[in-house]
């Protein structure tokens, strides 16, 4: 055998060994469930895959659906990373030990509300964006119902809006659970449930997704809806006949969150993706795709369009109490029994 052949073989083996870790990392596919708008979710995946760090298999589901899946799959999870959607289900998953403790090196660079979300969960989740809850209405349909305007929660009880209000189901939608918890904090529990029973008479549909009422109002399928104002703003900027308001009595807000699932198949790859999702490059993507929540990273600049969301009259929302599993379960059970099941 020629003496150069063994040396060539050894060199080739060394190169293969050096390349293997990188190739293995590139071949990892992160199972990513996203609870934000579809376009936002897909752009996050596209941008991260361009880095070459890993492949990402993304599914879009509402927060209630994801929490139910994470709970059902405890011990054998199919999800590596859960991103977006209201923080309450993320907190509930944290309290039930369904998510992993992780302190990202990016954490100190985030706004206080994002860091507090991490602290209250024992660092099992973190805030990624924030947005205020509001009321949206079709400005062309409202006068046809004989209504001058909507400014407050109380205005949605107008009998002229019978069958003309749309809101999501709080069992599947983080938006709607935020509404439920907000009303309880503003009015007190019994009065809030009295309010929701009266509102039930005006509701035409409890949708699965929290953003659906915006689309329905823009299409003229409903006159009014309850949504996050950031969801409404994107539609408003398309020149649709839509207006949104932060209710005069005050309103709650979401801290969209992110969690690593306990026992996930690809924990190290998921942590790298997690860190990237908190960094300025990823945090700015929401604005670029016209998803107008306030980003968690301090360095991301806000366009003027977001100012009304920041100026909303926000309540001192108790994330700890209303994100607790027992409280959430109790309130949802009462809503199912007293509101959704009520006759019209």
Give structural notes:
Residues 1-24 have low confidence and may be disordered. Strands 1, 2, 3, 4, 5, 6, 7, 8, 9 and 10 form a ten-stranded mixed β-sheet that branches. It contains 16 helices and ten strands. It folds into two domains: 4-130 and 255-303, D-Maltodextrin-Binding Protein, domain 2, CATH 3.40.190; 131-253 and 324-340, D-Maltodextrin-Binding Protein, domain 2, CATH 3.40.190.10. The chain is globular. It is α/β, with parallel strands linked by helices and 344 residues long.
Unreliable residue stretches = 1-24
SSE series? HEHEHEHHEHEHHEHEHEEHHHEHHH
CATH architectural arrangement of the largest domain? 3-Layer(aba) Sandwich
CATH level-four homologous superfamily name of the largest domain: Periplasmic binding protein-like II
Tally of domains: 2
Question: What gyration radius follows from the Cα positions, in whole Å?
Answer: 23 Å
Q: How much helicity do the residues have?
A: 40-55%
Mean pLDDT: 90
Number of helical elements: 16
> Distance between termini?
91 Å
CATH topology of the largest domain: D-Maltodextrin-Binding Protein, domain 2
CATH class of the largest domain: Alpha Beta
Strand-pairing-aware structural class: alpha/beta
Largest sheet: 10 strands, mixed
Q: Hey, roughly how much beta strand do the residues contain?
A: 15-25%
Form type? globular
Topology:
Elements: H1 4-27, E1 29-34, H2 38-50, E2 55-60, H3 63-72, E3 81-83, H4 87-95, H5 112-120, E4 126-138, H6 141-144, E5 165-168, H7 174-187, H8 189-200, E6 203-207, H9 212-218, E7 224-228, H10 229-236, E8 242-245, E9 253-260, H11 267-278, H12 280-283, H13 285-288, E10 294-295, H14 307-310, H15 319-322, H16 325-340
Parallel strand pairs: 1-2, 1-3, 5-6, 5-7
Antiparallel strand pairs: 3-9, 4-7, 4-8, 4-9, 4-10
Helix pairs in contact: 3-4, 7-8, 8-16
């Amino acid at each position: 055998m020629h003496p150069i052949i063994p040396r060539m073989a050894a060199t080739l083996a060394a190169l293969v060994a050096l390349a293997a870790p990188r190739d293995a990392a590139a071949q990892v596919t992160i199972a990513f469930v996203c609870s934000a708008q579809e376009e936002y979710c897909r752009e996050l995946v596209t941008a991260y895959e361009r880095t070459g760090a890993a492949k990402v298999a993304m599914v879009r589901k509402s927060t209630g659906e994801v929490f139910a899946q994470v709970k059902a799959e405890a011990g054998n999870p199919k999800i590596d990373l859960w991103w977006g959607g209201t923080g309450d289900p993320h907190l509930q998953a944290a309290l039930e030990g369904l998510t992993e403790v992780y302190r990202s090196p990016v954490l100190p660079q985030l706004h206080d509300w994002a860091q507090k979300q991490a602290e209250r969960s024992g660092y099992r989740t973190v805030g990624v964006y924030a947005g205020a809850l509001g009321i949206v209405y079709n400005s062309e349909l409202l006068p046809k119902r004989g209504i001058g305007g909507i400014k407050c929660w109380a205005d949605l009880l107008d009998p002229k809006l019978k069958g003309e209000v749309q809101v999501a189901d709080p069992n599947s939608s983080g938006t709607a659970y935020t509404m439920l918890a907000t009303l309880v904090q503003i009015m007190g529990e019994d009065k809030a449930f009295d309010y929701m029973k009266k509102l039930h008479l005006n509701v035409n549909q409890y949708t699965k997704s929290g953003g659906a009422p915006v689309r329905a109002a823009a299409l003229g399928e409903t006159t009014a809806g309850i949504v996050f104002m950031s969801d409404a703003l994107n539609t408003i900027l398309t020149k649709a006949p839509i207006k949104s308001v932060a209710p005069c009595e005050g309103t709650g807000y979401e801290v969209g969150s992110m969690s690593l699932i306990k026992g996930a198949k690809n924990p190290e790859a998921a942590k790298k993706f997690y860190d990237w999702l908190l960094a300025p490059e990823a945090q700015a993507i929401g604005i670029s795709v016209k998803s107008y929540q306030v980003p968690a990273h301090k360095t991301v600049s806000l366009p003027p369009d977001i100012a009304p969301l920041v100026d909303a009259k926000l309540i001192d929302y108790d994330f700890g109490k209303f994100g607790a599993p027992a409280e959430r379960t109790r309130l949802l059970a009462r809503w199912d029994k007293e509101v959704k099941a009520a006759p019209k």
